[in-house]
Design brief:
Blueprint (H helix, E strand, L loop, with lengths): L12 E4 L5 E8 L6 H5 L13 E7 L4 E7 L3 E3 L11 H4 L22 H10 L2 H20 L1
Length: 147
């Protein structure tokens, strides 16, 4: 049974501990949930434990933008105050504010209605599903406090 909580949250800017890239968390797996092929491609001396949170990032480096999958042990919070320029950020998050990206509150959780959102959904996996679940839980908490 896993008892560890994720250290980083959705919308937080993080950077890799060893490699020169940073990104924004858009999804978290409680433990490794990628393929064995992907895991085995990491040099054995550098392989992280599978029993820790793994983060999906909208990542950037000096040359490109991409989606990264990184273990918690290889991430550190980025307190530079600098925004990330990944082109898919506006499809999932609001404007960079106080060092993080807030989730869009107006996401259409049933089905993406805008073609660009549909293409982001296919590129970034379950981000819309997780963002909608999080927002619906927040709406339920707010409704429960009111009545």
């Amino acid at each position: 049974m896993l008892k560890k909580r994720a250290k980083y949250h959705l919308g937080q800017v993080v950077r890799h501990r060893k490699h020169p890239f940073r990104g924004v968390v858009f999804d978290v797996d409680a433990k490794f949930s990628n393929t064995d092929e992907w895991y085995d491609a990491i040099p054995e001396e550098s392989r992280p434990s599978k029993e820790q949170p793994f983060y999906h990032l909208l990542a950037e480096n000096d040359q490109s933008y991409y989606v990264a999958y990184v273990s918690e042990q290889n991430l550190v919070a980025d307190y530079s105050g600098q925004p990330v320029d990944h082109p898919d950020l506006p499809d999932l998050f609001g404007d960079f504010t106080d060092g993080h990206y807030p989730l869009h509150f107006q996401l259409n959780c049933a089905t993406p209605s805008v073609p660009k959102r549909a293409s982001v959904l296919s590129r970034v996996g379950g981000a819309f599903k997780h963002a909608c679940l999080w927002m619906n839980m927040d709406r339920l908490r707010t409704a429960n406090r009111r009545g």
